[in-house]
Amino acid sequence: MFFTFFFVLNLFAQDKGKTMPLKKIINDIEQQHQVSFNYTEDNILGLKLNPPEKSLSLDQKLQYLAKKTNLSFENIDNKFINIYKKENPVVKICGYVFSGTDKKPIENANITLSNQTHVTTDSEGYFEFEKENVTTFLISHIGFITKKSTAGNSNSGNCLKFILEPEITQLQEIKANAILASGISKNTDGSLEIKPKKFGILPGLIEPDALQTMQQIPGVNSLDESVSSINVRGGTHDQNLFLWNGIRMFQTGHFFGLISVFNPNLAHTISIYKNGSSAFYGESVSSVVAISSTPETLEKNSFSAGINMINADVYGKYNLSKKSYIEISARKSITDFLETPTYKEYFDKVFQNTTITDFSQTQNVDYRSDKKFDFYDATLKYAQKIGNKDQIVLDLITIKDNLEVFQSATAYGIMRTENNVLRQQNYGGNLSWKRNWNSFNTTKVNIYNSSYELLADQKNTYENQLVIQENTVNNNGFNLENNHIINSKFSFNDGYQYNEMGITNLERVQNPDFYRKVKDVLRTHALILEGKYNDTISRVYFKAGTRINYIEKFEKFIVEPRIQFNYGISKSLSLELLGELKSQNSQQIIDLQKDYFGIEKRRWIISNNTTIPIQRSKQLSLNLFYKKNDWLLDIEHFYKKVTGITTSSQGFQNQLEFVKTTGDYEIWGAEMLVQKKMNHFLTWLSYTYNHNNYHFPRYEFPVFPNNFELMHSVSWAGIYEKNNFKIALGTKWTSGRPKTSPDISQIDLANPVLVYNKPNSTNLHIFSQVNISSTYKWEIEKGIQYKLGISILNILNRKNEISEYYRVSTITNSIEEVETFALQRTPNMSFRVSF
């Protein structure tokens, strides 16, 4: 026992303490187990260790050697053993990727390594990769915000967890391009959008004038061919809301309505709503026209100048830096030094049957008339981006029209003279700030002011009389709008608006002395809530909102819900439903038809909630829209009712001219547009039917046709555009507007006093007009572009009657029929250079 114990201890001491070269150990194993080792000398050179016990099996000995060295031993059929160095230990990065909304695994997420290799996640959201020299990696998936991470010392037993937040992008509304002309499209919300810089051509137009263009839309008319009297579905011009960069404009026309005050070469986007406007638009019971001159992206420097037979203009834009630019435009009439054929036609159209032209009716000898007319408008924009989230924009606009007419005549040895001055101007400014808090929340704030003035000064030497009339409007406001994107389909808007309206009307007369000045101020607050759902896959668009108005002076709340719904029955056919309730606190009235010399007779006033009610409207329309194979069909049925109107606001020139009462008008009808595009040729035909009646319950004839009713309207156009050449020919036909005729059977011709039949019981003759226009653009090598345009209104020179009324002549002591006619054949030409 003693001998055995001593022997075991001696062996253990030898194994524990005596090392030998690895090569010697390998040779011993070869002899003992009849195997052969394959290796390179470099792999085993210098290695020493205690040999394994001889009693161990071959595999146990190989495992022992692998554990004691950094070598691998590969046993092949217990005959050959390959020895090679072990590779460096592999460090792996692993992780799981989950959605931030529902916490579910994201399959097929893309893991991009810094060495540009890729791996993807499995159905459990799991991924792994060997670290090697990877320091960072990106995790991405369609519909989620890409996430960046740093490679740590993770392993499969301690995997990382990553949460990807959804990337929310509001889908762009589907647009049907080329409605009526290129550059005009229809949005899913029912509005029409005009891009002037992409505008093609329309009959009679050589420039993308916003207010002239909108008169081509079914349901929009101007009974007197004026952009200061646009009637949308039976409404008066003042019931439309005109916005220029957020500023409400109270003057919309130069030359007393024949030319738009909005420079057609300046606007970037014009949005027109006949119905279903956003809850952020208030103070109108008819349409909304919103003009924006702010580009969607920063554009390069540009300059252009142009001239036509009425005015000349310049435009310039200069980038001050990568984040700021300044933009200016100016336009002025050329009529103060050149009277073109276009100017003469315009002048005859505007001043027919006014106090200015009536002056010459009694002249016998020595009649003389001197006229001076001019207008101008100018704009300034300054935009500055601050960092990556903020932008400030300043917009300024000024508009002015000035007319001076001096007339004299000698009749029966008596000298009679009149000196008339009429000035109309509108100034406006808007300062806006936009902040993108993050990808989901945006805030817009703007402060604006709009000031309008209409001033008339008339001196009459025959009666030694001075008459001064003035109508001024001062409108200030503050708007706050927040936009919240909930997900890719749903967004929510909320906001607050404050509006202060001050209107002054002044009349001063000398001989006899008379003075009256009335100023009214109305302040309103509005809370706006609006939600939008837009799913382009299921072709469903739904937008609903409400505007809650509070009028301080009347302590009155008015709630105005709005709705827009569009459903794509198929890719070609869609159904649209629009509805709105709206209100308006200001309006234009006509006290006397000869106010302001009978030219610009309307003056702004504020509601007093009694004799001048708050106007309120309700409107509903159902539209079917089809577009396929370059065919387009648009059919819309509508109903509209406006309450709170006054007889003074409707321009009566019959027995209601001096009647003061309130009522409403109700209109229903249908609008249709058929359009076909064939290569470079586009043609369309539109038809509008409406039935429009007044309701004045306190008048002896409580129901009769509206002054602005055009029961039937038909328009056609053929447009050809190829390369830089464009030409358009079109015609417009409307049934005559209502008129009131005198009852001859009840009039004493010896001492005539006007006695009328029932109001608007007959109609004027049919209105028919054919127009043509053409433009050509070319460019020289230095990048300078030239554009030449020619247009002719009323090619056939048809004499179209647009109004008719009756009066008693003090000269002949008889009843006169006074007719007003549209423009005769009117040519125009323009030339523009841009670079």
Topology:
Blueprint: H1 2-17, E1 20-21, H2 22-33, E2 36-38, H3 41-44, E3 48-49, H4 58-68, E4 71-76, E5 80-85, E6 92-99, E7 110-113, E8 118-120, E9 126-130, E10 136-140, E11 147-150, E12 160-164, E13 184-186, E14 192-194, H5 210-213, E15 220-221, E16 231-232, E17 241-244, E18 247-248, E19 253-254, E20 259-260, E21 269-273, E22 288-292, E23 302-308, E24 311-321, E25 324-333, H6 341-351, H7 355-358, E26 365-386, E27 390-411, E28 414-436, E29 441-460, E30 465-485, E31 490-510, E32 514-535, E33 540-551, E34 556-568, E35 573-584, E36 586-589, E37 603-606, E38 615-628, E39 631-646, E40 662-678, E41 681-695, E42 703-705, E43 712-722, E44 725-734, E45 738-739, E46 762-763, E47 767-779, E48 785-793, E49 801-809, E50 814-821, E51 826-834
Short description:
The chain has 835 residues and is mainly beta. Helices cover 7% and strands 53% of the residues. The strands form 11 sheets. The protein has a 22-stranded antiparallel barrel. A 6-stranded mixed sheet has the order 13-14-21-22-17-18, with no helix packed on it. Strands 8-7-10-11 form a 4-stranded antiparallel sheet, with no helix packed on it.
Structure write-up:
This protein has 835 residues and is mainly β. It has a 22-stranded antiparallel beta barrel. The chain is elongated and about 155 Å long.
What are the main properties of this structure?
835 residues; mainly beta; 22-stranded antiparallel β-barrel; six-stranded mixed beta sheet; 7 helices; elongated; disordered N terminus
